[in-house]
Amino acid sequence: MYKEKLPYSQSALILGISSIITACCCWGVIGVILGIIGLVNANKAISIHEDDPEIFDGINNAKTGKTTSIIGIVIGVISMIWHIYIFSTGEYQILFEEFNNMTGEY
């Protein structure tokens, strides 16, 4: 018997992976947004699969998408907190000067 692809499972996986990548690169904000969207999609997919598991295939993508979305959200929140701390304490200027000294530019 042919099983249909589980709706929202593939998008949850893609958004979860993207949230990890962007949480590390984009100050965490975009990673948190993508992670939340991926988590919502993963939860939708899991609830659809629980309603009728014989029809749909792809629950592993939904579960992996949920896990990667949670990881992306956590990394994004940590990154945002770190950036807020650096800017609010004035340590950003010190880091910027050290970077310029290491690269030899002024």
TrEMBL record:
| One Pfam family of this chain | MpPF26
Is Cell cycle one of the keywords? no
**Keyword Ligase in record:** no
* Residue ranges crossing the lipid bilayer per the database entry: 12-37, 70-87
Q: Which UniProt keywords apply?
A: Membrane, Transmembrane, Transmembrane helix
Taxonomy, superkingdom = Bacteria
Q: What is this protein called?
A: CCC motif membrane protein
